[in-house]
Design a protein that fits this description.
The chain is an alpha/beta fold. Strand 8, helix 5 and strand 9 form a beta-alpha-beta unit. The strands form 3 sheets. A 6-stranded mixed sheet has the order 7-6-5-8-9-10, with helices on both faces. The chain has a 4-stranded antiparallel sheet with strand order 4-11-1-13, with no helix packed on it. 28% of the residues lie in helices and 23% in strands. The longest helix has 19 residues. Helix 5 packs parallel to helix 6. The chain folds into 2 domains: 77 residues; 186 residues, 3-Layer(aba) Sandwich (Rossmann fold).
């Protein structure tokens, strides 16, 4: 069976699993269109800082809008100093963007905390049994730190994947969903991340008024053992999204780190580095509250940069991105690249 047919079959089977596991009594959102970059204006009151050197539009004329999915490349960017503390006082002029070795002009800049859509993925496989309560408590702390304008969903996964709280759920429903997870079964990590990415695509920003960042925070304690979707398909979907992935790879209680754990570590490292996130490997469940706290703080400390690529080719090829800052000792972290449009 070819890779394309295998992926198509996996998606069909996943859709059936997902619909069967989805909460009852709620209409399912229609599938969103193919992944694309949202249509953003060059500036917005209270959000974007004017870019030095760019003249404002004439009176009575709106700022130019970017065509959805074609022009604007958006980058959620975290900047840290040599002590790994967040740098929060930079302006647009402190950043530079390079695409495939060519400098790009920054067209959009924001250092305000934009609303967040976050998908919380909790591994409830049998191996999590003794650590489930601690994991739930840590995830509840993260949910409680979300602001009123943020939205969250909760995905519980073992051998099956269940969206136990969809986007649009109240804070109380989100917290109840986290507390309801019960350990049992094997680990379908790739299925869970795949479904989370597709669900986030449905609620992505369509215009400047609904501008929000997207993130996945996934907790798992081992390798994938039962997914229908292959790792390559999940990584490809992640690279085509604008979602930042944060992963927590909880070590086994006895400290075992054999080949399965090495493979799992590699998967989490790749997914997070490609999307501009971070991976954590705590030695025990007691470290989870502080790790969720660090992720929450980072999500509150990011910049949003946007640029229009100077490369006009629509060849569908991967374009590598680097974001640099002029502040001595500071380091910027963002997604590693994007696919050019192909139409």
């Amino acid at each position: 069976m070819t890779r394309a047919r295998r992926a198509a079959l996996a998606v069909t089977l996943l859709a059936g699993m997902f619909l069967a596991a989805a909460p009852t009594g709620r209409a399912q959102s229609p599938p969103g269109p193919a992944q694309s970059t949202p249509e953003w204006a060059q500036s917005a009151p209270g959000q974007a800082q004017p870019i030095p050197g760019q003249a404002p539009p004439p009176a009575g004329q709106a700022s130019p809008a970017f065509r959805s999915g074609v022009d604007l490349v958006s980058l959620n960017t975290t900047v840290t100093d040599p002590t790994n503390r967040f740098v929060l006082d930079l302006g647009a002029g402190d950043f530079s963007i390079v695409e495939d070795g060519v400098g790009q002009e920054i067209r959009f800049f924001s250092r305000t905390t934009l609303p967040l859509s976050v998908s919380l993925l909790l591994d409830s496989s049998a191996s999590m049994d003794e650590r489930m309560k601690t994991a739930q408590k840590a995830a509840l702390g993260f949910a409680e730190a979300l602001r009123a304008q943020d939205q969250a969903q909760v995905i519980d996964f073992d051998s099956r994947v269940s969206v136990v709280a969809p986007f649009g759920a109240s804070r109380a429903e989100v917290e109840k969903a986290i507390a309801s997870t019960v350990a049992g079964g094997s680990t379908a990590l790739y299925n869970a991340i795949y479904i989370a990415l597709r669900e986030l695509n449905k609620v992505r920003s369509r215009n400047i008024e609904d501008l929000r960042r997207q993130a996945i925070v996934v907790l798992s304690d081992g390798e994938d053992t039962s997914s229908l979707v292959a790792y390559d398909e999940v990584l490809e979907l992640a690279k085509r999204s604008e979602t930042v992935i944060y992963a927590i790879g909880l070590r086994s209680k006895d400290g075992y780190t054999g080949k399965g754990y090495s493979d799992a570590d590699y998967v989490l490292r790749q997914l997070t580095s490609q999307t501009g996130g971070r991976v954590f490997f705590p030695g025990g469940a007691d470290e989870l509250p502080s790790i969720y706290g660090m992720i929450s703080e980072e999500l509150s400390s990011q910049y949003l940069l946007g640029y229009t690529s100077s490369n006009p080719r629509r060849d569908g090829r991967w374009r590598r991105i680097q974001v640099r800052v002029s502040r001595a000792g500071a380091t910027a972290r963002t997604r590693q690249g994007y696919y050019a449009p192909s139409f």
